[in-house]
Write a structure and sequence with these properties.
globular; 428 residues; 12 helices; alpha/beta; Lyase, Ornithine Decarboxylase, Chain A, domain 1; TIM Barrel
């Protein structure tokens, strides 16, 4: 029964399951590729976060960018979480999923006027403002609506989170936030704006962080600034420390737990008496998901053995984009092992899931599961090579539910057909 990688994905009689549902059965029922998520894995992580921060007034805002499927968002909303968004589309999804706007925080360096307008209208908890110009624009937009917008200044604490450079966001040279030495000036400018309420301070140092000590440094710097603001009469309501806790991608990984984060952060924040906001994404959903794919072909080129599968970099971009490691398991265990490159059908050399990886000797028609794919999997997927995006499935105990149908070719080209009919003079 046991499987050392995840107890939410156990082997039962040599066959990989999600909770109590056979992945082979789902594959035969709906085809491949598909993303599958364990509901109980998500609920357990939610409860770990809630328990870790239960003794301090904390709003846990799920980072929608990790996985924004409406059924997934609904699980977080039903369990009392808020939402961290970075686009108008995520705001739209969050409101559709029933989130209270007063529990929505909005970050991102490039919010359009239309996106800002929609979020001001919705009455969100706070915009995490990333530049001086954004302060001016939100003030103008809020004024045009006769409203006051809540803002927090996102500061850049210049802390190295020791993660992949593409997902380090708190360094001085990154595009995010306002540098510490400019932050006081930003607050002073914002306070003079009649259409803004200055409610908080925000920092986020990066993603897939495997050591909590950089958080301590970042939060200490942020708290230092809170006290400087207090001295000049600027009182805030909350301190938002972002998200970024890492997850297990390799069997040997031992990522930090929410308790580790709470233990290091709460004592520092407590000095301010401000409410706390945390924005976990990957650590709530990442390990709950897997991408299931079928072997199409085997190919040998001298010393290289290739296993070609029906998922590609359009389905899961992380290996191609970050050279990221994902553990890969056979859906049905085999006795013999091989060393292979596991690759997709996309016309790019970068279309790989694993290079020189030891894996069971899979044959044409066998299934495999790419693990820890619940975060930044489907949400980063595309229609590259005109490939329909994968189906998404949620498992709850003995049952599974298709929470997003597999796209069809006609779905992909529908917006173009409408445009073609207009330009060619055809009437619908």
């Amino acid at each position: 029964m046991g499987n050392s990688f995840s107890h939410y994905f156990p082997y039962i009689e040599n066959e990989l399951h999600c909770e109590n549902v056979s992945l082979k059965k789902i594959a035969k029922d709906i085809g491949t590729p598909f993303y599958v998520y364990s509901k109980n894995a998500i609920l357990d992580k939610i409860n770990r976060y809630k328990k870790a921060f239960q003794n301090y007034p904390t709003l846990i805002c799920y980072a929608a960018k990790a996985n924004s499927n409406l059924s997934i968002l609904e699980i977080f909303r039903e369990n009392g979480l808020g939402l961290d968004i970075v686009s108008g589309g995520e705001l739209y999804r969050g409101l559709k999923a029933g989130f209270d706007p007063k529990k929505i925080v909005y970050a991102g360096v490039g919010k359009t006027d239309k996106e800002l307008l929609e979020a001001v209208k919705a009455g969100i908890l706070s915009f995490n403002v990333e530049s001086f110009m954004e302060i001016e624009v939100i003030d103008r937009i809020a004024g045009s609506l006769g409203k006051k917008a809540n803002i927090s200044i996102r500061i850049n604490p210049d802390v190295n989170p020791k993660t992949h450079p593409y997902i380090s966001t708190g360094l001085r040279e990154s595009k995010f936030g306002i540098d510490m030495e400019d932050a006081l000036k930003a607050y002073e400018i914002a306070l003079k704006k009649k259409n803004l309420n200055v409610v908080g301070i925000h920092c986020h140092i990066g993603s897939q962080i495997m050591d909590v000590s950089p958080y301590k440094e970042a939060v200490e710097k942020t708290v230092e600034l809170v006290f400087k603001l207090k001295k000049i009469g600027i009182e805030l309501e909350h301190i938002d420390i972002g998200g970024g806790l890492g997850i297990k991608y390799r069997p040997e990984d031992r990522p930090p737990e929410p308790e580790d984060l709470a233990r290091i952060v709460i004592p520092v924040v407590k000095e301010t008496g401000l409410k706390l906001i945390v924005e976990p994404g990957r650590s709530l959903i990442g390990e709950a998901g897997a991408l299931v794919s079928q072997v199409l072909f085997l190919k040998d080129k001298g010393e290289k053995h290739f296993i070609i599968i029906d998922s590609g970099m359009n389905d899961l971009l992380r290996p191609a984009m970050y050279n990221a490691y994902h553990h890969i398991l056979p859906v049905t265990k085999k006795k013999k092992k091989v060393v292979a490159d596991i690759v997709g059908p996309i016309c790019e050399t970068g279309d790989f899931f694993a290079v020189d990886r030891e894996i069971d000797d899979l044959q044409r028609g066998d299934y495999l599961a790419v693990m820890s794919a619940g975060a930044y999997g489907f949400s980063m997927s595309s229609n590259y090579n005109s490939r329909p995006r994968a189906a998404e499935v949620l498992v709850d105990g003995n049952e599974y539910f298709v929470i997003r149908e597999r796209e069809s070719y006609s779905y992909i080209i529908e917006p173009e057909i409408k445009a073609l009919q207009k330009t060619s003079g055809e009437v619908e």
